[in-house]
């Protein structure tokens, strides 16, 4: 059976009646209602300082994806995502080893280098032996440029357990997309369930 995860499986849920707001540049946000205190607080939450200089760099860089669990050595197992194309290709062939039955959170570390990114969503589909076994869709939110990376943690899930769960490799396709449908990253990785962390 094919382990390929097609684009249709990674389409975000649409909220009926929701209309995406007009995108603005950092300069446009800086010019918005300088006398509006609540807007100033909102802009500060996004990291938009008054009269901030234009940010540079890629709009979004994903540094790592982690499966965090209190039982994991060091609290998590991670994959590095800001490496070379060869390193990204190796993710498909070298699965993470995850202990069966544990509670865990998916967490991503990322940087925003230019512009305010709004309505970011995290999506992933997990297949084992060609059958979809999990789908996660989580709102990441809106973020402004800053030098330090952000970390976003998602809901706590429980890893399956038992001989059947341990019997194959789980192939995961992950995508980060915004309200406009712009795809910022799309990659495939894998993990295996085992009796203990490796």
Could you characterize what this model shows?
A hairpin with a 5-residue loop joins strand 8 (169-177) and strand 9 (183-194). The mean pLDDT is 85. It is built from four helices and nine strands. The strands form two sheets. Strands 3-9-8-5-6 form a five-stranded mixed β-sheet, covered by helices on one side. Strands 2-1-4-7 form a four-stranded antiparallel β-sheet, covered by helices on one side. The longest helix has 9 residues, at 37-45. The chain has two domains: 23-54, no CATH class; 56-194, Coagulation Factor XIII, Chain A, domain 1. It starts with 25 loop residues before the first helix and ends with a strand. By secondary structure, the chain is mostly beta strands. Helices cover 14% and strands 42% of the residues. Belongs to the Rho GDI family. Its main location: cytoplasm. It is found in: Cytoplasm. Pfam families: Rho_GDI.
């Amino acid at each position: 059976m094919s382990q390929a995860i097609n684009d249709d499986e990674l389409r975000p849920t649409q909220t009926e009646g929701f209309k995406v707001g007009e995108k603005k540049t950092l300069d446009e946000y800086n010019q918005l209602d300088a006398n509006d205190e609540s807007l100033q607080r909102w802009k500060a939450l996004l990291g938009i300082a008054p009269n901030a200089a234009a940010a540079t760099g890629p709009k979004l860089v994903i540094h790592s994806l982690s499966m965090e669990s209190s039982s994991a050595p060091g609290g998590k197992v991670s994959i590095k995502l800001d490496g070379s194309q060869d390193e990204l290709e190796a993710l498909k062939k070298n699965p993470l080893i995850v202990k069966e039955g544990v509670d865990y959170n998916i967490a991503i570390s990322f940087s925003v280098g230019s512009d305010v990114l709004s309505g970011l969503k995290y999506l992933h589909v997990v297949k084992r032996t060609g059958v979809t076994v999990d789908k996660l869709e989580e709102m990441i939110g809106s973020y402004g440029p800053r030098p330090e990376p952000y970390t976003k943690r998602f809901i706590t899930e429980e890893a399956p357990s038992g001989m059947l769960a341990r019997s194959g490799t789980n192939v995961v396709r992950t995508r980060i997309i915004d309200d406009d449908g712009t795809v910022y990253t799309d990659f495939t990785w894998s993990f295996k369930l085992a009796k203990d962390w490796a």
